[in-house]
Specification:
This protein has four helices and no strands. With 109 residues, the protein is mostly helical.
Length: 109
């Protein structure tokens, strides 16, 4: 599970759509009290920051739509509570760029 901390336009198709799918899983865990992956580092860093996670989702959706994808899975904005900024990282953004570069995908990093 990974939510990148890089601008969505730099993500290749695979990482953009994969992050969107994983963000929905994470949202479900955090808003639905689900226990699967509840102690995953990525899950822990978003606790108390649903407003920031919501904003990330909206940024992903904007990029998906810019690329011509249809989006049909909105999040409930009423659940977007807590901090609106994410400043805690599993890997800092510079390391995330290096991880993406090493994948050999089409990400523009």
């Amino acid at each position: 599970m990974r939510i990148w901390d890089l601008p969505p336009p730099v993500l290749c198709r695979r990482h953009l759509l994969g992050e969107h799918r994983e963000l929905h899983a994470l949202w479900s865990i955090l808003t639905g009290g689900k226990t699967g992956y509840a102690n995953h580092p990525e899950t822990r860093r978003w606790r108390g920051r649903l407003a920031a996670l919501y904003r990330r989702h909206e940024a992903l959706v904007a990029e998906m739509e810019r690329r011509g994808y249809r989006h049909a899975t909105p999040l409930d904005p009423a659940l977007a509570t807590g901090a609106a900024v994410q400043d805690t990282y599993v890997d800092p953004p510079a390391r995330q760029r290096a991880l993406l570069r090493a994948k050999g995908c089409d990400c523009a990093v």
